[in-house]
Protein backbone atom coordinates (compact mmCIF):
# COMPACT_ATOMS: atom_id res chain seq x y z
CA UNK A 1 0.00 0.00 0.00
CA UNK A 2 1.33 3.43 -0.91
CA UNK A 3 1.37 6.08 1.77
CA UNK A 4 0.51 9.68 1.17
CA UNK A 5 3.01 12.51 1.63
CA UNK A 6 0.20 14.97 2.16
CA UNK A 7 -0.94 15.21 5.77
CA UNK A 8 -4.64 14.94 6.46
CA UNK A 9 -6.24 16.79 9.36
CA UNK A 10 -9.28 16.16 11.47
CA UNK A 11 -10.37 19.44 13.00
CA UNK A 12 -12.94 20.96 15.30
CA UNK A 13 -14.24 24.48 14.79
CA UNK A 14 -16.27 26.51 17.24
CA UNK A 15 -17.97 29.86 17.40
CA UNK A 16 -17.99 32.18 20.40
CA UNK A 17 -20.97 30.35 21.92
CA UNK A 18 -19.16 27.02 21.39
CA UNK A 19 -21.29 25.55 18.65
CA UNK A 20 -19.02 22.77 17.33
CA UNK A 21 -18.25 21.43 13.87
CA UNK A 22 -15.94 18.51 13.02
CA UNK A 23 -14.34 18.10 9.60
CA UNK A 24 -11.48 16.49 7.70
CA UNK A 25 -9.22 18.01 5.05
CA UNK A 26 -5.97 17.53 3.18
CA UNK A 27 -5.16 21.26 3.38
CA UNK A 28 -5.95 22.59 6.85
CA UNK A 29 -4.67 26.13 6.30
CA UNK A 30 -6.75 26.62 3.13
CA UNK A 31 -9.84 25.00 4.63
CA UNK A 32 -9.76 27.20 7.74
CA UNK A 33 -9.28 30.26 5.52
CA UNK A 34 -12.43 29.24 3.61
CA UNK A 35 -14.35 28.93 6.88
CA UNK A 36 -13.12 32.33 8.07
CA UNK A 37 -14.25 33.93 4.81
CA UNK A 38 -17.59 32.13 5.20
CA UNK A 39 -17.02 30.77 1.70
CA UNK A 40 -18.20 27.34 2.87
CA UNK A 41 -21.98 27.26 2.82
CA UNK A 42 -24.14 25.30 5.19
CA UNK A 43 -23.77 24.72 8.92
CA UNK A 44 -20.52 26.61 9.53
CA UNK A 45 -21.70 29.64 7.60
CA UNK A 46 -25.15 29.64 9.20
CA UNK A 47 -23.76 29.48 12.75
CA UNK A 48 -20.59 31.54 12.15
CA UNK A 49 -18.38 28.61 13.15
CA UNK A 50 -14.87 29.70 12.16
CA UNK A 51 -12.47 29.32 15.10
CA UNK A 52 -10.06 26.40 14.91
CA UNK A 53 -9.99 24.98 18.44
CA UNK A 54 -8.61 21.47 17.86
CA UNK A 55 -6.88 19.41 15.20
CA UNK A 56 -5.06 16.13 14.69
CA UNK A 57 -2.73 15.15 11.82
CA UNK A 58 -2.65 11.82 9.98
CA UNK A 59 -0.66 10.52 7.02
CA UNK A 60 -3.36 8.19 5.71
CA UNK A 61 -6.69 9.61 4.49
CA UNK A 62 -8.66 6.55 5.61
CA UNK A 63 -7.31 6.93 9.15
CA UNK A 64 -8.29 10.63 9.19
CA UNK A 65 -11.78 9.89 7.86
CA UNK A 66 -12.26 7.11 10.40
CA UNK A 67 -11.17 9.45 13.21
CA UNK A 68 -13.50 12.20 11.98
CA UNK A 69 -16.43 9.77 12.11
CA UNK A 70 -15.37 8.65 15.58
CA UNK A 71 -15.28 12.25 16.86
CA UNK A 72 -18.64 13.03 15.25
CA UNK A 73 -20.17 10.13 17.21
CA UNK A 74 -18.89 11.49 20.54
CA UNK A 75 -21.27 13.27 22.84
CA UNK A 76 -20.98 17.03 23.04
CA UNK A 77 -19.44 16.69 26.53
CA UNK A 78 -16.74 14.36 25.20
CA UNK A 79 -15.96 16.69 22.29
CA UNK A 80 -15.60 19.57 24.74
CA UNK A 81 -13.30 17.45 26.92
CA UNK A 82 -11.21 16.59 23.85
CA UNK A 83 -10.80 20.27 22.98
CA UNK A 84 -10.09 21.33 26.55
CA UNK A 85 -7.41 18.67 27.04
CA UNK A 86 -5.19 20.40 24.47
CA UNK A 87 -6.73 23.88 24.28
CA UNK A 88 -8.23 24.73 27.69
CA UNK A 89 -8.67 28.42 26.85
CA UNK A 90 -10.38 27.72 23.51
CA UNK A 91 -7.84 29.84 21.63
CA UNK A 92 -8.24 30.10 17.88
CA UNK A 93 -5.33 27.96 16.67
CA UNK A 94 -5.53 29.20 13.07
CA UNK A 95 -2.74 31.71 13.66
CA UNK A 96 -0.30 28.93 14.53
CA UNK A 97 -0.73 27.06 11.22
Short description:
The chain is α+β, with helices and mostly antiparallel strands and 97 residues long. It has helices at 28-36, 43-46, 61-73, 76-86, and strands at residues 8-14, 20-25, 51-58.
Mean of the pLDDT scores? 95
Q: Radius of gyration, Cα only, in angstroms? A: 13 Å
The CATH superfamily name is GIY-YIG endonuclease
**Pattern of helices and strands:** EEHHEHH
- Determine the strand fraction and express it as a percent band: 15-25%
Structural class: alpha+beta
Taking the sheet with the most strands, its summary is: 3 strands, antiparallel
Distance between the termini: 29 Å
Name given to the CATH architecture: 3-Layer(aba) Sandwich
CATH class: Alpha Beta
Q: Give the overall shape.
A: globular
Largest sheet, spatial ordering of strands = 2-1-3
Number of strands: 3
How many domain units? 1
- What's the total helix number? 4
Approximate helicity band: 25-40%
- Looking at the structure, the CATH topology is GIY-YIG endonuclease
How do the helices and strands line up, and which of them pair or pack?
Layout: E1 8-14, E2 20-25, H1 28-36, H2 43-46, E3 51-58, H3 61-73, H4 76-86
Antiparallel strand pairs: 1-2, 1-3
Can you describe what's shown?
- The protein has about 100 residues and is α+β, with helices and mostly antiparallel strands.
- It has one domain (about 10-95): GIY-YIG endonuclease, CATH 3.40.1440.10.
- About 40% of the residues lie in helices and about 20% in strands.
- The protein has four helices and three strands.
- The chain has helices at about 30-35, 45, 60-75, 75-85; strands spanning about 10-15, 20-25, 50-60.
- It has a three-stranded antiparallel beta sheet, sandwiched between helices.
- A hairpin with a 5-residue loop joins strand 1 and strand 2.
- The termini are far apart.
- The model has no long low-confidence stretch (mean pLDDT about 95).
Amino acid sequence: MLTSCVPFHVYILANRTRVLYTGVTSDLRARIYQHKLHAVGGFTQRYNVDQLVYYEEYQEPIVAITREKQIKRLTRAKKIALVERLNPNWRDLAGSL
